[in-house]
Amino acid sequence: MDKVILTGDRPTGRLHIGHYVGSLRSRVELQNKGDYDKFYIMIADVQALTDNWDNPEKVRQNIIEVALDYLSVGIDPSKVTIFIQSGVKGLYQLTCFYMDVVTLARLQRNPTIKSELKMREFGESIPVGFRTYPISQAADITGFDATIIPVGDDQLPMIEQTREIVRSINNIYGETLYEPEAVLPSNDACRRLPGTDGNAKMSKSLGNCIYLADDSDTVKKKVMGMYTDPNHIRVEDPGQVEGNMVFTYLDCFCKEDSFEKFLPEFKDLDELKDAYKKGGLGDVKIKNFLYQVLEEELTPVREKRKYYEEHIDEVYEILKKGTEDASKHCDQVVDRLIKNMKINYFDNKEIIEKYTN
Ligand code: TRP
Fold first, then answer.
1. Which end of the chain is more exposed for a tag (fewer CB within 10 A), N or C?
2. Ligand 1 atom showing the smallest separation from residue 146 Cα
3. Res. 311: pLDDT tops 90
4. Residue from 5, 42, 92 whose mutation best tests the ligand 1 pocket (most atoms within 8 A of CB)
């Protein structure tokens, strides 16, 4: 069995540094380790449309933004196949067949969908496509024989649903599909980076994101406005580290040599935290440090982005080629399923003979 990694994102907005520490950074590491046969990253526009059906322009716009984000963090199209979901026609076929082996009751148990439904307040007017998107996601995964799915924990119910579909299909039609496994990010602290305002979720609507595409001045402004410890009023006051966004971010972004480079009077993050807790360390100083740490990470990202923004044709070419490659793989899976279902009426002699004699 080949080792196939697949993951994806809905193109509904630019990616931010929460995406970066939560998943993009480890995708680049995985890519560079090279321990796989195929590595796919999907821009899930069909899924994005399930709750943005009235705003295709937003989805279209963000396909290119997300592609630029991938390329700028160092996803290498010679190692990873980046593709657009809607261009892989086999996925619609798989989705259609999988619909028959999932009950509505099973779909309604999915906790991720439950909380999404609550948030969006669809009521009875829920689009069927949205309600059933976990089935389409099962196609996304099995359509490329993917076995390793690096995702956040909110996606675990989707992987579980996929595994059930795989088992059902294999039970009915014989071994056809592979059961995928989710791989969660290894660094727990960075799984869900909070917003700059301390809100648990970094989100566009809350205006508390630092985007990968933000310029240096914007990043500086956002860092200087970050939520710290509201009781740390004077420099000499003792400060709190828990819930202080500057320290939360430093936990995710600080590198071994960050202190040596930007704040040599401290040895490491523990020493900095101790000094802050004792009092005598001002917010501006730690914010400036965080700003420099972030800049070191974001400057090369910005440079790569600038290159690709000026070579947008290349980006479309990468997506086009990726989508063609992905389609070929998916067509093979569809053929396999159709053959095992024995509905390949026109090229199966057995069927033709059985029903014509
Ligand atoms: N549901 C995922 C998200 O919201 C996006 C996605 C679509 C995906 N298809 C996928 C992730 C297949 C992993 C595998 O982020």
1. C
2. 14
3. yes
4. 42
